[in-house]
Amino acid sequence: MDGNGRWAERRGHARFFGHVRGAARIRGVVEEAVSQGISALTLFAFSTENWKRPEAERTVLWGLLERYLRKEVPGLLRQNVRLQIIGDQSRLPESSRRAIASAQHVLSQCSGMVLTLALSYGARAEIIEAARRFAQECEQGRASATDLDEATFSGLLQTAELGDLSDVDLVIRTSGEQRISNFLLWQVAYAEFVFRPEPWPEFGAEQFSDVLKTFAGRERRFGGVTLPRPELGVNG
Ligand code: FPP
To answer: Which of ligand 1's atoms lies nearest the C-alpha of 8?
Structure first.
């Protein structure tokens, strides 16, 4: 959800105002995702690197997260959306952790789209943590190096709960930047990327729907080749 700060500064506002507008944009995008039958949507809200931001900005962000959860949980429940968090929650303020736990509890029986919020998340840290856990299993004699394959490693990442859905199909980055910024590095191996010029506060359901059309037009080969369509007729 990039570009909040620049959006605000261009209008002569303080950066935090961009985050306020950005947070307000989430509802429309989530509703559009649900209505298009998307199974999993992940929003990158706060990276491990974002801890370098001034305390005042961080405080606004955690306040917005808490407000979002308070306001939106009833709507998420109606839409059958489950909530998942990735990232190091132990660094979050106690009030944010409580708000997350309460929202997850209310939505725990939902079986529709999984909305994942990446909070204090960094993909390198996630990968290191998974490697560490596997090394510990080996040290304790419960696994050996040859047991490690891609599926096992995926199961050690924070997205493991998503199962097959943890392999990302589409990454959308707003605000014109064309970087990955330590986001789901393992999971995006075969993802399609769409970079949009709008800052996040100007990205809504309509833009999201446009991006989905672009994605639908992409040819995904997963490292293979596209075979010519077989002739129809002989064996039906
Ligand atoms: C990036 O824009 C955005 C963030 C670091 C925060 C995104 C958070 C929210 C939209 C609201 C809080 C979260 C939830 C889930 C309700 P930037 O500040 O880096 O923009 P810039 O690149 O223009 O400076």
So the answer is: 23
